[in-house]
Amino acid sequence: MLHVMPLGDAVEHVSDDDCVCGPTAKMIKAEDGSVVWLMIHHSLDGREITEGHQGES
Ligand SMILES: [Zn+2]
User: Fold this and answer.
1) Which of 14, 25, 51, 54 has the most other CB atoms within 10 Å of its CB?
2) Number of structural domains found in the chain
3) pLDDT in tens, 18-51
4) How far, in Å, is the centroid of ligand 1 from the Cα of 12?
């Protein structure tokens, strides 16, 4: 499984599906019919999720 992580994020991501950001699995189907799963990690620096910690503003 491929992991897509935000660069320079405020939190440290791990290449696992139990990462702190709660990554979302996304299925990509290639032209030859093969299926690739992407694990999309979410930025926790405030762009998407505001739960947990605040205080930058
Ligand atoms: Zn993550």
Assistant:
1) 14
2) 1
3) 999 999 999 999 999 999 999 999 987 665 555 5
4) 7
